[in-house]
Amino acid sequence: MDPRTPCLIGVAQHTVREQPGPEPLDLWELVAREAARDARLPLHRLDSIQIVYSDSWQYDAPADRLARRLGADPRHRVYSKVSGTAPQLLIGEAAARIARGELDAALVVGAEALATRRAYRHKGEHVPWSHAANPKPPYGWERPPHASELAHELFMPVHTYAIMETARRKFRNIDIKEEMLDRGEMMAPMTEVAAANRHAWRRKVMTPQELATPTAANRFVGWPYTRNTVAVIEVDQAAALVLASSGLADRLNVPRDQRIYLRGWAYAEDTWEVAARPALGGSQALGHAARAAFERAGLGLDDMNALDLYSCFAIALRQACDTLGLDPLDRRGLTVTGGLPYAGGPSSCYVLHSTATMAALLRDGGHGLVTGVGMHLTKHAYAVWSSEPGTDRSDGAPVFVADPVPIADVHEGPATVAGYTIAHDREGRPDKGILVVDLPDGRRAHALVRQADLIADALGRELVGQEVRLSSEGGVNRAAW
Length: 481
What we know:
5-stranded mixed sheet, 16 strands, globular, alpha+beta, 7-stranded antiparallel sheet, 13 helices
C-alpha cells in the first residue's frame, strides 16, 4: 500500500448531560485527546487542526487556542463556515493533503454547548466562557439569506424544509394525514437506534403514532412538522476524528482493522434559495453527489453494510431515499446514530458523530455510506467509508451546481402556491403562513398569510396548487384567496 494513503485511525464522541456543562473549547480538548489516544498518536505530531464552526461561542482564535491546549503546533489550521456538510469537506481536505504528502496527521473536531447556553439563559446569567472574539465576527454564513427571504421571515430551517415537504407531498399525491403517518413510520426505527446509542441525546423509543400525533409535548413547530420529528439543536455534544497516512499508522502500530478508508466522496449544490429550486420538492444535486461518490468508491448502494442519511428533517431523508431508490424501511436502517432528532443535531457538527459511529462499526469490516446536508437542502456531501482502501483522491469541488429559477422580490396579481408552511409559536399556536408561489411569467416569489381564517383553511387541506392573489406593501407580498 502507498504509505501516503489516508486512513481514519482515531475517533471520539462525548455527550454532556449535567447542566450547565463545559464550554466548547473544553469539549474540543476532551474529544481531541480521546481520539488521539484511540489513534495512538502523540498530540505534538498533529500537522493539522480543523474545527467545525460552533454556534455556541465565537472564540478569538479557535484553532490556535485548541493547539495550545493540546501542546501541538500544527502548520495547517482551519475554522469552517456554517454548514452540515462542513465536517465532510474538512475530512476530504485532510485526506487529500495527506495523499499529496503535505500532512501526516490531521485532527477534525467539533462541539456545541447550546444546552449549557440555554441553562445559563434560564438562570438569567451570561455564559462565563473564555477568549471571546472582540469584536464579535459576523455569523459564519458562506452566503447570507436572500433579501426577499428575510423580508418574508423565511430563514429558519424548520420553515424552509417544511415548504419543500409540502411541495413533495403534492407532487407525490400524498394527503396530509398520510404524510404525517409515513413520517412517523420512517422515523420510529431511528428512535430505537438512538435508545441503544450511549452518546444519544434523546434515548426514548417512540412509536410511529406517537411521532405522527400532535400533542402538547409534540407540538407543531413548522407545520406539518412536529417537535419530535425535527433535529434537536440545543445539545452539549462533541466529536473528533484523527486521520493519518498509512505510513504513519504503520509507525504508530495502529492495527489494520482499526484503519478506515474514505473510499470515495462527492459534493454538489442545489440552489441557495429554496424558492429558486426548479423542482421545489426534489433535488437535482443529490443524485449527482450520490452517483459520483459510488463511482469513485467502485461500490454501489447494495454493497453498503450500514447507512447514515442526514436527517435534520423528514424531507432530507425522503429526497435521499427518492434519489437512491431506497426503501425508507430498509433493513439496514437509515442511521447508525439515531439521527439528528434523537441522537442529537449539534448545529454543523453532526456528520462528525455519524462518521465516528460508522468508523467504529466498520472496524469489524465492510462499507458504509455517510451523507451530509448544508443550509436549506442546498449542499450535499456523500461519503463512502470502507475497511478496504480504494484509489479515489477526490477534492471538494462540486460535481454539480443547479441553475436557479428567478425570484421576484415583489408581485401584484395572480400566483399559484408551490409550497407552504404554517409557522407556530412556542405554545404551538398557528402564527402565520409562509408561501412560495409560482408566477405566470415563470418566476417564483414569497408571500405571507396573516389572516386567521386563511391560516385555518391552509391547516385543514392541501394548499399547494391553490390560486392566490398577491398584493405588495413595503417590499412584502401578502397572499389571499
